[in-house]
Structures are given as C-alpha cells and as structure tokens.
Amino acid sequence: MNQKSKKKIRIFGKVMFVIYIFFLLYFLIFSDCYGRIGKMEDYHYNIILFKEIRRFWEYREELGIFAVFTNLAGNILIFLPFGFFTSLASSVRRMWRSFYLSMGLSLCVEIFQFVTKVGSFDVDDLVLNTIGGLLGGIVFLVFNNIRRRYQTYGKK
Q: How high is the pLDDT of residue 41?
C-alpha cells in the first residue's frame, strides 16, 4: 500500500471517528427517545454493581426484548467503535489503553448525567460501556494483526 492510500485511509478514519463522537454525544445526552431531554423530577441512579443488569435479565419477558437489548447489548455496542477508533488513532496499541479510555469516557458521561440529571447515573452502564470499548480495542488488534500478516506474506 502506497503512502497516498494510507493517507486517504487515515483521513477517512478520522472523519468516521468525528461522526461517531457526534452520534455518541447525541445518543447519550440529547436523544429524547431514551429520556435525555429535560431534567427528571424524580432522579434515579444506581451505584450497586450488577443491580440493573440483573433486573433487566430477571424481568426480560415483562420489559420486552427491545428494552433488554438496548440496555445490555446496546451499552456494549455503542462503545465498541470508540475502542476501535482510539486504537486506530494511537501509536500505542495496547488492549488496556482501550479499557482505560473507554472507562474514562463512560465515567465522564455518567457524571455528566448525574450532575445535569439528564439520563441516569448507573454503575452498570459504566461496566458495560467499558467492556464495549475493550472489545473494540480487541477487534482492532485482531484486524491489525491480520493486515500485518497479509502485508508480510504479500511481499514475498
């Protein structure tokens, strides 16, 4: 791959990351379909680890598949690109870097939700978002390893 192609891919990656960040901010802070608009009269928060995860799993039939998927898998899936993009953008490509950056961003979002009373502070969201970011970093490392092997074998 020549330098011009690499530069185009990097620019495309940066543009996709910016679009993703805007999507993430909208979804986590401003999305009215998840109760993000306006302050809540009776604010709810969860500081007990796995309480909401267990509740969603126990009442999955009453809540419906959409609510359970959105809360459990959705929190993982929404941070997966973050872990991927931060690994892509960094020269230090370590799995733990994705873990710490995802945890940091998720903690910032949860604290913002707590202070502004938009959404709700949930320690389980922090765990699920961090897992998503970590998985995104792992996906990047796997794809990067495959790419390097392909380039190595292609030169022979």
A: 63
18-33 b/e (C-beta count within 10 Å ≥ 16 → b):
eeeeeebeeebbeeee
Whether 107 and 101 have beta carbons less than 8 Å apart is answered as no
**Cα 149 from Cα 137, distance rounded (Å):** 18
- pLDDT at residue 38 tops 70: no
Cβ neighbours around 130 below 10 Å, total: 24
Residues 6+ apart with CB under 8 A from 58: none
- Distance in angstroms (rounded) separating the CA atoms of residues 81 and 37: 25
Bridge partners of 122? Answer: 46
Detail the DSSP E strand segments found in 60-136: 121-122
| Phi and psi torsions of 64, nearest 5° | 95, 155
* 46 DSSP β-pair partners: 122
- Of 70, 64, 65, 84, nearest to 21 by C-alpha is 84
Structure tokens at 101: 């950056």
pTM, rounded to two decimals: 0.84
Q: List residues bridging with 121 in a β-sheet.
A: 45
Q: What number of other Cβ atoms are within 10 A of residue 125's Cβ?
A: 24
